[in-house]
Amino acid sequence: HELGQDWSRVNQQSTVDSAMMNWYNDIFLDVVSEKMVTGRTFFPTEKTARPLATKTPFLIMAAPNYLKHLRRLGFKTFGNFWDESYDYQQGVQRIVSMQKIIDNVAKLDKQGLTDMYQKMLPILEHNYKTYHELTVNKITSTFL
């Protein structure tokens, strides 16, 4: 969801490429499409890392329970802002559920988006910090 030229959010430097970082200053919601979208897998890539590192709200097209696994790693998601039951779905059902969220967000005006973003800031700050503190040992101890 593009916010246009009036949107003023400046992301901090992170592991995200600086040219791409500027794109994230102009969007409200990142609709992430992960590589693995079926089965029982949790394979986060740079696609998931980008919104975490740029304090950007996200939806994720991935295998079922992807958000659940992100939460196991200590990340927070946006269930207080929209229906995250899409996380238990796959295929067309997941796409339809995500589209409903996108449609609802798209109905918000600039002030509505700004207000929602401000309410999301504690989650976004938490995810930013958690992402930058994430280690191989944390991942291994969580899932093995």
Compile the SSE list and pairings.
Layout (H helix, E strand, L loop, with lengths): L17 H7 L5 E4 L12 H8 L4 E4 L4 H7 L18 H16 L3 H24 L2 H8 L1
Parallel strand pairs: 1-2
Walkthrough of the structure:
The chain is mainly alpha-helical and 144 residues long. The chain is 49% helix and 6% strand. Strands 1-2 form a two-stranded parallel sheet. Strand 1 (30-33), helix 2 and strand 2 form a beta-alpha-beta unit. The radius of gyration is 15 Å and the shape is globular. The termini are far apart. Residues 1-5 have low confidence and may be disordered.
Number of discrete helical segments: 6
In whole angstroms, how far apart are the ends? 37 Å
The count of β-strands is 2
- What proportion of the residues form beta strands (DSSP E)? 5-15%
Summing up helix and strand content along with how strands pair, one would put the structural category as: mainly alpha
Overall outline: globular
**Main sheet specs:** 2 strands, parallel
Overall mean pLDDT stands at: 89
Q: Percentage of helical residues?
A: 40-55%
N-to-C SSE series?
A: HEHEHHHH
Q: What strand order characterises the main sheet? A: 1-2
Rg value: 15 Å
Poorly predicted residue ranges:
1-5
